[in-house]
Amino acid sequence: MILEISDLEVHYGQRRRRRPALSGVSLTVERGEVVGLIGETGSGKSTLARAVLGLVSLSAGRIVIDGEDVTAHRARQWRSLRRRGGVQYVFQDPLRSLDPDVSVVDSIAEPLLVRGDSRAEAEKQARAYLSRVRLDEELATRLPGELSGGQRQRVAVARALVTEPQLVILDEPVSALDSANRVQILEIVKELRAAGVSFVFISHDLGSVAGIADRVAVLYRGELVEFGPVRDVVKNPAHAYTRLLVSSAPTLRTASAGRAEREALRSLLTAERKPT
């Protein structure tokens, strides 16, 4: 098992203004597995990712990465874990995460230089990862602004992979891409999963991860309301929010999941949001 999260709680704010961002969340990721993390804006997806990266303080719970309990890690220990490739993160917007004045090959090589590798070895590894994410060698010296959105996203993936991490968190990696580039990114994820890399694939759309994930976790208002194999969650969703996601996804919608049902589910969720 590469990731184990147990009874995780995260609160934001101070004292009386403290509010829960995550409440009692537990999930696991096996080696070579893709787990889809689904939820609407504000459901806690990004908070969960930041917790796994050691970027937010935990109110309660436990996180274990590749057998290492990181729950009480200090900043220096987290930096060491990330630098040696324990866990890496791919941002939603690669144009903002890539330095506009740094070439493609130097962006990919940067994590290796931070780790302490020589410049010659780092550049050699960076160029090797260009082909691994299906980018031409001629793009190595270009700047991010000279690339398409799909190419920039693949550079971001290569930069995350170059340290050979055990776990990669993908934050909405295909939401801003056209269909052709979306397919390419998903195919790269499949290939890397077959090579033993584990992924947490964050999205607001169940349909976008149904074809790539082994299991799916559904977050709603900071709580994990559904977690299991994709087929089981899609065919037999237990929570109203999950049923709404299924009925709203064109590729997952069934004949019985019509407009009236979706409106009824929205009404139920709206009622749940109202204070008692």
UniProtKB/TrEMBL annotation:
Is Plastid found in the keyword set?
Answer: no
Pfam families linked to this entry: ABC_tran, oligo_HPY
Provide the ABC transporter domain boundaries. Answer: 3-246
MF terms per GO, please?
ATP binding; ATP hydrolysis activity
Q: Which SMART domains match?
A: AAA
Keyword Nucleotide-binding on entry: yes
Key words of the record: ATP-binding, Nucleotide-binding, Transport
A single GO BP: peptide transport
The UniProt entry, under SUPFAM superfamilies, shows:
P-loop containing nucleoside triphosphate hydrolases
Question: What CDD domains does this protein map onto?
Answer: ABC_NikE_OppD_transporters
Highest taxon in the source lineage:
Bacteria
Q: Which residues form a coiled coil?
A: none
Concerning its family, UniProt says: Belongs to the ABC transporter superfamily.
> What is the designated name of this protein?
ABC transporter ATP-binding protein
**What does UniProt list as this organism's lineage?**
Bacteria, Bacillati, Actinomycetota, Actinomycetes, Pseudonocardiales
